[in-house]
Specification:
Two copies of one chain form a homodimer. With 380 residues, chain A is an alpha/beta fold. Chain A has three domains: 2-73, Arc Repressor Mutant, subunit A; 79-187 and 364-378, ATPase, nucleotide binding domain (Nucleotidyltransferase, domain 5), CATH 3.30.420; 194-362, ATPase, nucleotide binding domain (Nucleotidyltransferase, domain 5, 2-Layer Sandwich), CATH 3.30.420.40. In chain A, 39% of the residues lie in helices and 19% in strands. Chain A has 14 helices and 15 strands. Chain A has helices spanning 2-6, 14-19, 27-34, 38-50, 115-131, 170-175, 187-199, 256-260, 262-271, 279-287, 291-315, 331-344, 347-350, 364-378, and strands at residues 25-26, 54-57, 70-73, 79-85, 89-95, 101-108, 138-145, 149-150, 155-156, 182-186, 206-211, 215-221, 224-226, 319-323, 354-357. In chain A, the strands form four sheets. In chain A, strands 6-5-4-7-10 form a five-stranded mixed β-sheet, with helices on both faces. Chain A has a five-stranded mixed β-sheet with strand order 13-12-11-14-15. In chain A, a hairpin with a 3-residue loop joins β4 and β5 (89-95). The two termini of chain A are 16 Å apart. Mean pLDDT of chain A is 91; it is low at 1-9. Chains A and B meet through α1, β12, α11 and α13 of A and α1, β12, α11 and α13 of B.
Chain lengths: 380, 380
């Protein structure tokens, strides 16, 4: 519990916490609601107003006489830079303090070009976006990477598809470019955070599963992102798929990712004489009505669903979100996943379980990157 | 997040939170540390002193002149009743507000006798313990049951080994007998809570696995018990053990519990001509050096370890505690579990993973039952 607290920027300001709901309040209301002394409320309000996080609220109508001053949260006080670095593309976005995406750009960029090249591209496009919002002050930058990240340092930890990135100081590199804190996390963690904060804020336990070239998951437990002891939580792509012996890039055999990822499906389809190398190719074959591709995706869904049934037994989530590029292949993947989960889970754990496609789609990770900075800055 | 807050008794008192560390503090120190107004601190202190949760601290030595009054937490202000109802035994205990077990009794009692008989036995022995502490006021009662419990209502939810208990109003029955709130939870959840609060309070992510007649787990995530959406989290006994088709009492086939529980091992040993019906029988055969029993326990450890490898990949805990009666069979179970986990997990997730036997042993559940009431009463 000590670890959790020390990982936060600072104790959350109780006045700011109250005002985040958007309701304007008087000084006396804030004293009543918090029990804080008048001098404390006055001092904290002065600081929050100086920081522009809180502004005096202009009453729309007067009820006669001078109304008591009210204060409200100001979501435009800062901009948040949010970036999602994928295997072949890079998305950079700006959000406000309410987490709304104001502006974004997606650029082709191969992650194998290494951190210097990729982060230079990120910086260049971030500056271009910031130039379009000249009055904006930056609260910080959140970055998602497609591999394991040590959360406290923000350094990639033996990422399999990111040559040149192992232990690279992403935080140091970007702190030199932008004002405010730089936080880095695994892209699937950020997808879970983005889907949760923007679509399911009241849900306590949610599992987000990304099915793309690889397979991974992000877990929300008790309303908070569960990163695990080394930031390695959610690494379900290397759980054994029962009865399989396919060699995985991790060096083990029968990993779920070696059996049911878009890369594994493309390999199967090529062996059957079809042209398929990427997740996008598989999606297009399914959309075109190709039977072999549809069957392969459905079977991959069953394999993923068998592993997810174990995850459901362990954590009993109320929402299981299926995202990632292969989830755009239509209903086959979801149908296979549901089939296996309902066959293998106890009734109690699935009574109210929702198994649903991602609503935020390709924006999940940048929304999560913005949410990570907001939680840090505003003490959420 | 809203759900989580509303499930708590009340907003935690910030003064009480500070004083729980046992350090005495002056009124001015409490004002400085909390930012609360003098009138608020005075009012809250009066309430806490009236409730006896806080008492004036008598200084051991004077530094000349009258020292300012100091206040400290009073762990003897209340007693907590803690009960662990097992399949064949019932443990009743009294704890103080620091969670220390002051007194306890264990009685033979078959849970299949039904809730009226079992809870009458519990009440009788609880009254006998309370009679030995005549000045104690009860803060509440925490009860562990060996089956799924709907946390909000405390009612057993289709428990497989508890005939007559389904949906029984345990809370209503015991509220009529004892003062203070009555909270009921699954025994494995409480074992996880008891082991965590008493032995690993600084650990953020811990998984407690009970291996006995059945198999189950309790998960601590971010320092808090993760109960899941229906209170069904940790139900790992019904995850599929790869390559197995044994019929399970749940109606499915190949469940871990049907393959590697003490009951499953006893069945295997009987088929080999040995006398074994209970977990205790299996433990005694292993302790007596029986090779077939030792091999069976080791193999059960491997099967459990394969499922736990998936759990480790999903949640990345730093501590994995093995408890339950079969864990007393010595090193064979733990060795089999470790073997499978290290064979199947990614290096990052196991670098600092501790796989250890339970330290609280048979007291884990009553300690957890007490901790559940303390968290509720003191707003921990």
């Amino acid at each position: 519990m000590g670890d959790e607290l020390s990982a936060r920027a600072a104790d959350p300001d109780p006045l700011l916490q109250l005002l985040l709901d958007g309701q304007p309040r008087t000084r006396n209301q804030l004293m009543d609601l918090t029990g804080l002394a008048r001098s404390t409320v006055t001092g904290r309000l002065e600081l929050l107003v100086a920081q522009e996080f809180v502004v005096p609220h202009e009453a729309a109508e007067s009820t006669g006489g001078r109304p008591p001053g009210r204060f409200r949260f100001n979501p435009t006080a800062r901009l948040v830079l949010a970036a999602d670095i994928g295997a072949t593309h890079l998305t950079v976005a700006l959000a406000d303090l309410a987490g709304e995406i104001l502006d974004s750009a997606t650029i082709s960029q191969n992650i194998a070009d290494g951190p210097e090249v990729v982060l230079a591209t990120l910086t260049e496009h971030a500056r271009a976006l910031l130039a379009r919002h000249p009055n904006g002050r930056l609260a910080g930058a959140g970055v998602g990477l497609p591999g394991p990240v040590e959360h406290l340092t923000g350094r990639p930890n033996h990422p399999p598809i990111m040559p040149g990135w192992d232990s690279y100081d992403v935080v140091g590199r970007l702190t030199a470019e932008f004002t405010g804190p730089v936080l880095v996390d695994n892209d699937v963690n950020l997808m879970a955070l983005g889907e949760h904060t923007s679509q399911y804020a009241d849900v306590e336990h949610l599992l987000f599963v990304k099915v793309a070239t690889g397979i991974g998951a992000g877990l929300i437990s008790g309303g908070r992102l569960h990163r695990g002891a080394q930031g390695a939580a959610g690494d379900i792509g290397h759980i054994q798929a029962a009865g399989h012996t396919e060699l995985c890039r991790c060096g083990n055999t029968g990993c779920l990712e070696a059996v049911a990822s878009a890369a594994a499906i493309a390999t199967q389809l090529r062996a059957g004489g079809l042209e398929a190398t990427s997740s996008q190719d598989v999606v297009e074959l399914v959309r075109a009505g190709n039977t072999a591709a549809t069957q392969a995706v459905r079977q991959a869904g069953r394999e993923i669903g068998t592993v997810l049934a174990a995850c459901v037994s362990l954590i009993n989530p109320s929402v299981l979100v299926i995202g990632g590029s292969l989830s755009q292949a239509g209903d086959s993947l979801l149908a296979g996943i549901r089939e296996a989960i309902y066959a293998r889970s106890l009734p109690l754990a699935t009574t109210d379980l929702k198994v649903v496609p991602s609503r935020t789609s390709h924006q999940a990770a940048v929304r999560g990157a913005a949410a990570m900075i907001l939680q840090h800055t505003l003490g959420l």
